[in-house]
Amino acid sequence: MCGFCGYAGDIPENSEVILTNMMNTIIHRGPDSSGQYIDEDVAMGFRRLSIIDLDMGSQPMTNENDDVIITFNGEIYNFKELREDLIAKGHIFKNNSDTETLIHSYEEYGEDMLNKLRGMFAFVIWDKKTKTLLGARDSFGIKPLYYTICDDTLIYGSEIKSILKHPLYKKELNETALENY
Fold first, then answer.
1. Of the N and C termini of the chain, which has fewer Cβ atoms inside 10 Å?
2. Which residues are paired to 134 by β-bridges?
3. Radius of gyration of the chain from Cα atoms?
4. If DSSP states are collapsed to H, E and C, what string results for 137-150?
5. To the nearest 10°, the Cα dihedral for 169, 1, 119, 19?
6. What global pTM score does this model have?
7. What are phi and psi of 108, to 5 degrees?
8. What is the rounded distance in angstroms from the CA atom of residue 86 to the CA atom of residue 104?
9. Rounded-to-integer distance, Cα 28 and Cα 170, Å
């Protein structure tokens, strides 16, 4: 199943502790392994259930320059065809995962990559060069991606309960949202 969580914006000194607490709430989504990426702009966490490319599919995963980072849950059905196209365009692959295909698709096509994907997916890509965070999910919402903005921090996750663990999130009733619901 896999799961991810993280935040961008205000990155406090204890981000590793905050991110670990967020990740621990979704350990059931990925008991096989975990990973973190933290810099001055973003904190990204991942819980892995190993299915494809068991040895090389760990996340967060980076491109060869370590300036594009991804956390991904799902399956890209047409990743082999996309991969062949990207190799023909000069991209170098380190493994056989659909995750790495997403990284190179982003490098090649930017947000337009979404028009090329077939599958069930949710992912977040951090581009260090442009300081851009791209989050996306499949159009049917098969794989979840929840997010909220607290102060100047975007907090996201595969499950809402990981968001609840972030110290900026205030657990209070939103009467307007409840009425609309």
1. C
2. 125
3. 16
4. ECCCCCCCCEEEEE
5. 30
6. 0.91
7. -80, -40
8. 7
9. 24
H/E element, 108: helix 98-109
List pLDDT tens digits, range 49-104. 665 555 566 899 999 999 999 999 999 999 999 999 999 999 999 998 899 999 99
Nearest to 112 by CA among 130, 136, 88: 136
> Quick check: is 2 catalytic?
yes
| Non-local CB neighbours of 112 within 8 Å, separated by 6+ positions | none
Sheet holding 33-38, edge to edge: 33-38, 42-48, 3-8, 153-157, 146-150
User: Residue 75 is which amino acid?
Assistant: E
Which of 1, 2, 46, 113 is the catalytic position? Answer: 2
CA angle at 127 for the pair 126 and 131, rounded to the nearest 5°: 100
> In the numeric block, which tokens belong to residue 101?
């295909």
CB 159 within 8 A of CB 148: no
Distance CA 139, CA 114 (A): 10
The string of pLDDT tens digits covering residues 3-36 is: 999 999 989 999 999 999 999 999 998 767 789 9
Query: By C-alpha distance, which of 113, 106, 169, 144 is closest to 2?
Result: 144
Is 45 within 8 Å of 70 (Cβ atoms)?
A: no
